[in-house]
Please model this.
Amino acid sequence: MHFPSLADIQEAHHRIQSFIHRTPLMSSEAINKIAGAEIFFKCENFQKVGAFKARGAANAVSKLGEEEKLNGVATHSSGNHAAALARAATVAGIPSYIVMPSNAPEIKKKAVKGYGGEIIECEPNLQARESTLNEVVAKTGATFIHPYDNIDVVEGQATCALEMWDEGIAFDTIMAPVGGGGLLGGTALTTHYLSPNTKVIAGEPAGADDAFRSFQAKKLIPMQGPNTIADGLLTSLGKINFEIIMQHVDDILTVNDEEIIDAMRLIYERMKIVIEPSCAVPLAALLKNKERFQNQKIGIILSGGNVDLAKLPFK
Amino acid sequence: MHFPSLADIQEAHHRIQSFIHRTPLMSSEAINKIAGAEIFFKCENFQKVGAFKARGAANAVSKLGEEEKLNGVATHSSGNHAAALARAATVAGIPSYIVMPSNAPEIKKKAVKGYGGEIIECEPNLQARESTLNEVVAKTGATFIHPYDNIDVVEGQATCALEMWDEGIAFDTIMAPVGGGGLLGGTALTTHYLSPNTKVIAGEPAGADDAFRSFQAKKLIPMQGPNTIADGLLTSLGKINFEIIMQHVDDILTVNDEEIIDAMRLIYERMKIVIEPSCAVPLAALLKNKERFQNQKIGIILSGGNVDLAKLPFK
Model:
């Protein structure tokens, strides 16, 4: 498979930069003290649509040919990719068709509509999702933009690490959460090109640990019945991303939900920022394996901030 | 009364700047659209100890004479000033004595201890608080640093607006919450010196509206039985601050708790940052009086981010 080159990723960044925020790196002395390391959090919770997904969607839409653009884009997602694709399409002046399960939360539907996406409801199961998507694509001629198993999406997500490296910090390790693997794959590629000695390490919920098991087994093992508070990481690892990860990721560490919630609380309390549970997974993994990261400079990507405030897990 | 001059405030900023963060201004397109104005939020929730109180405490401690320093500082507070004074004292290498009601939340006591303050408990009423403080001062010779009715504290809080003006934005209006009035008084002074035509407008909870009533009546009316979710604004307006406010504040707008919670939710959802309910009061006041602020450039001070995560008011 042909992975995006550094020049491709740089071009992607140039292509999408007027559609995204350049998000800040933030640090907390208190968390550094607890971790025994110097951590720089890349705040993609402040990104457009509240998540790094804005990057991949903007890149995929921007790369469509003029013919393709006429028919718009389609996807199935009830999460951040749905909102990101709807927004990217609207900004480009083209239609977007978002297949969502009929039981998706009202707030998610509202977000997609707010960004100008057209929602097509389906029964809440994978088969209905895929068949409905196929129908939509057949009827409209829209281009299907997969949430993570799409090389242009991965190329877009890779721009996040590009901005981190542009800050001039000599990271010993860069950490990201892994669900479908788009962010992790993109981060690993960029870091491989710019600093091959830097370790790229993923955090994954123990209740959705298909990437961990696939990485260990060296073959793609799909996730069945995931169960974790990190609702952004329920999906199975994508094929493209599995290949990148096997080549350029150094390790995948798992953490349980209690560890995720503890790390999430630390970020809310000490950094005063709102993140999704998924974002707390890498910090939880770091704190669980402290000795391994002592005195390192570590970049951690906080992937998004779209959380149901009425359901925060703090007691 | 002699108010701090612009030079005094600038000197205070120079004096404290190695002890505080220069906090960022943040904006949200979504909130601007809702408000019909261009809002710049000064994020004092990211300040040391999680609130602007770090400024006033640092300034008051730094201005003590060498003799005074030996005996340390004392205050009565169960809120952000307690933590801020404890930290400022510890940084200066001097003791701090914090009188707190015996029923103060464990988390607040822990914060003060964590910053190196010595807690002296008292019965949970005003009389016990004042008599205990007097005993502590008599015994230790410590200097009492009032949370807001202290000119050095006000001078320190005034440095927040100094940083805002330093960003080169021509604010039409600057808004702050008002409780004891230290932040509002300092903000009004700085803004009066640097941009006398800019309006300074406070937001206040309807359930603790002594500043509003004092401002209307042109005489200081203490608060009795305050009741609001904005727990940082329960205190009565200080004498010094009342004088500054009568001279340099243009208006005080009140909002009820429902309006405060709505504005708070907007900031969590759209800006992805953690703030105390008190911080949301000025935005609530703006949104309640939208027509008055149309197309203006508005600076809003988000005063702090120390909130009990288990008790967030979102449903």
Notes: Chain B has two domains: 6-51+151-311, 54-144.
